[in-house]
Write a structure and sequence with these properties.
Shape: globular
Helix content: 25-40%
Low-confidence stretches: none
Strand content: 25-35%
Structural class: alpha/beta
Radius of gyration: 13 Å
Number of helices: 4
Length: 125
C-alpha cells in the first residue's frame, strides 16, 4: 500500500508515510481504514512524510475534497490536533502548501516543513 500509518515510538503522534505514485482515490480510504482499526490514533498529532511520494496525479479538486473531508471529520469528533507535513526541499510539493492553506478554519493545525526534525519537534511541543 502506498500510504502506510504507524504510531511513532514516543506514542505522541502517528506517521502517515506516502511512497511512490499516489492515486487521487487512495488518500481518504487509507485514512478511513486506519482510523477504523486504530481509533485512539485519531486524536494523536500526525506527521505526513511525503519525502518519497509522487503526488502528480492528485488534482486541486481531489486536494479540496481531502481537506474538506478532514476538516469535517475533526469538527465532528472535536479533535484539536497538529499535522506536520514533511517535504524535503528537493521534493517540494505545492500540494502540501495548498493543503496547509485550505485547512484554515479547521480544528487541525497544519504546517509544512522541509526538515523532518523540525516537524517532529513541532509535534512534540
Amino acid at each position: 500500500m502506498p500510504i502506510r500509518h504507524t504510531v511513532h515510538e514516543s506514542g505522541e503522534f502517528f506517521i502517515a508515510t506516502y511512497v511512490g505514485k499516489i492515486a487521487a482515490n487512495e488518500t481518504i480510504p487509507a485514512y478511513e481504514n486506519y482510523y477504523a482499526t486504530e481509533k485512539d490514533s485519531f486524536f494523536l498529532n500526525q506527521l505526513v512524510d511525503l519525502s518519497k511520494a509522487d503526488l502528480t496525479e492528485i488534482s486541486h479538486e481531489e486536494l479540496t475534497k481531502l481537506a474538506s473531508w478532514s476538516r469535517n471529520l475533526h469538527l465532528e469528533r472535536g479533535a484539536r490536533k497538529r499535522t506536520a507535513i514533511y517535504v524535503p526541499e528537493s521534493n517540494r510539493s505545492a500540494h502540501a502548501l495548498v493543503y496547509e492553506f485550505m485547512s484554515e478554519g479547521s480544528l487541525e493545525h497544519v504546517m509544512v516543513f522541509t526538515s523532518k526534525e523540525e516537524a517532529v519537534a513541532w509535534l512534540m511541543e
